[in-house]
């Protein structure tokens, strides 16, 4: 058995400043718990610990608000408008979304149930299948994708903010023509402003993120519906339901199913770490209900809005817009431009914090639990997202396709292994306290803390997924690379893992902490 220092008593722990805002909790607040394994300070702190069932306050509406923001992201509108440009008409786009949303609802609901039952964040959830040390692999991959996208989304938000500032005071336009390290003076000022706003919000923890998402959801929905209605009237109360060169036959159906698959792939990050949010949910019913309204219902509303925008613009002048921000720029009233721009900024910040800030915070905590907490890790991830100069990455198609595309291709195999291990092999039986011990007799210690069977299943599936996703020869099936990766890894792991073992189901409640930190 690994030697660990004795866990302090509750009184000793309090002496370390337990109530200080920047305190890092190395052991359960109650100290050593009789009958449970010795908790390791290298695996446990207040952000990685399970959440107490009592006091969880993410409701159905909290979950719905996440999707009310994220589904309506500018990137998603760009994706749907791209399908319209490709030649898919209104009903074909809506069918693709319906198929994708149905699949996502199932995947995200089962992923969410894992978080509700165990109360642990994604890096700790990964310890179940990959081992207490092997979990660093999925946590690092998910965190790396998120940090890069955090920087890119912040940069995309500056484009909206710059339009708004120039509309208010045209003199700002003079600051937007020079370039230093790839960004104008106005670009630097707006990026710094939005970067600071996000850092401040996230430093208050997950509950502040929940409150922001709940505030932003209605603002986003009302604004985008209003933009679609305005475009509809501009087009004479009718729209084009397709371009002048619509797809038909086999090409049409391939694009419909490809679009549905890509809609799932877009959320390949989220299906992995949805437990980061649902670990604070009140019940399984609240997750299912929030997902139902937030994914299938909300996605179809999103599709209708996008189709109206694209069809109205095409009816007006034969052009296809690339983003709702293009609609905002065309609004002739300065006050309305400012209001619409503010709403898009609220949206982009909401999407960024949910999709791209939470995951690296937990990943960094998992690497350095003795030294980091939510506030410190959020600052580090934000600094990394800044110093990589994300606008230069975004403007380089090679980086977007090969770096982010390659990392994204790894998410499917990770999901397949984690879900098969939890649902099919263990049947949701998890010894939560054992996820935080270095005892080599622990069920998640495997071989030196790594489960070699998970790695053996992951590597070939990841290689196949990357090849299918990035090699031009496989272009016709590249849209489905996430499914190939998840399926191959899941099936391989199912046969490698062995299903005749005994699994204990032990609650994490004795070592849990309050949801709000």
Automatic annotation (TrEMBL):
It is a multi-pass membrane protein. The keyword Membrane applies. InterPro entries: Pur-cyt_permease (IPR001248), Uracil/uridine/allantoin_perm (IPR045225). The keyword Aminoacyl-tRNA synthetase does not apply. The chain crosses the membrane at residues 79-108, 143-168, 180-202, 214-233, 253-272, 292-314, 334-362, 374-394, 400-425, 454-474, 480-497. One of its GO terms (molecular function) is nucleobase transmembrane transporter activity. This is NCS1 family nucleobase:cation symporter-1.
């Amino acid at each position: 058995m690994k030697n660990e220092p004795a866990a302090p008593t509750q009184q000793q722990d309090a002496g370390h400043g337990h109530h200080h805002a920047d305190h890092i909790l190395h052991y359960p607040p109650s100290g050593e718990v009789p009958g449970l394994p010795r908790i390791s300070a290298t695996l446990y702190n207040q952000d990685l610990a399970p959440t107490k069932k009592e006091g969880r306050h993410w409701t159905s509406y909290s979950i719905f608000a996440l999707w009310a923001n994220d589904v309506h992201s500018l990137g998603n509108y760009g994706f749907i408008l791209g399908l319209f440009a490709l030649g898919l008409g209104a009903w074909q786009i809506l069918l693709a979304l319906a198929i994708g949303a149905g699949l996502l609802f199932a995947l995200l609901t089962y992923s969410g149930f894992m978080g509700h039952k165990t109360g642990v964040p994604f890096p700790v959830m990964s310890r179940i299948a990959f081992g207490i040390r092997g979990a660093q692999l999925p946590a690092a991959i998910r965190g790396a994708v998120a940090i890069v996208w955090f920087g890119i989304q912040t940069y995309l938000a500056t484009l909206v903010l710059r339009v708004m500032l120039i509309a208010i005071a045209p003199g700002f336009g003079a600051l937007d023509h020079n370039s230093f390290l790839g960004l104008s003076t106005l670009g630097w000022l707006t990026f710094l402003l939005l970067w600071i706003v996000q850092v401040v919000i996230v430093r208050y923890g997950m509950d502040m993120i929940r409150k922001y998402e709940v505030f932003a959801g209605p603002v986003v929905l009302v604004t985008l519906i209003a933009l679609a209605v305005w475009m509809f009237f501009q087009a004479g109360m009718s729209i084009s339901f397709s371009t002048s060169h619509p797809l038909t036959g086999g090409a049409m159906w391939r694009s419909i199913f490809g679009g549905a698959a890509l809609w799932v792939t877009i959320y390949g990050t989220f299906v992995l770490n949805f437990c980061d949010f649902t670990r604070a949910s009140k019940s399984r019913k609240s997750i299912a209900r929030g997902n139902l309204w937030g994914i299938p219902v909300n996605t179809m509303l999103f599709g209708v809005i996008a189709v109206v925008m694209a069809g109205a613009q095409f009816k007006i002048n034969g052009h296809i817009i690339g983003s709702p921000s293009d609609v905002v720029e065309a609004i002739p009233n300065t006050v309305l431009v400012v209001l619409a721009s503010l709403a898009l900024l609220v949206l982009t910040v909401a999407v960024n914090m949910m999709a791209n800030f939470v995951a690296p915070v937990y990943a960094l905590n998992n690497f350095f639990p003795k030294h980091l907490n939510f506030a410190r890790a959020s600052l580090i991830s934000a600094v990394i997202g800044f110093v990589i100069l994300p606008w230069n990455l975004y403007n380089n198609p090679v980086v977007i396709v090969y770096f982010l595309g390659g990392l994204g291709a790894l998410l499917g195999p990770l999901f397949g292994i984690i879900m098969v291990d939890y649902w099919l092999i263990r049947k949701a039986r998890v010894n939560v306290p054992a996820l935080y011990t270095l005892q080599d007799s622990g069920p998640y210690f495997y071989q030196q803390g790594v489960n070699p069977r998970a790695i053996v299943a992951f590597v070939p599936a990841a290689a196949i997924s990357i090849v299918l996703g990035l090699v031009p020869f496989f272009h016709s099936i590249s849209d489905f690379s996430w499914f190939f990766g998840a399926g191959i890894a899941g099936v391989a792991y199912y046969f490698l893992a062995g299903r005749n073992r005994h699994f204990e189901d032990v609650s994490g409640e004795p070592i849990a902490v309050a949801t709000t930190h």
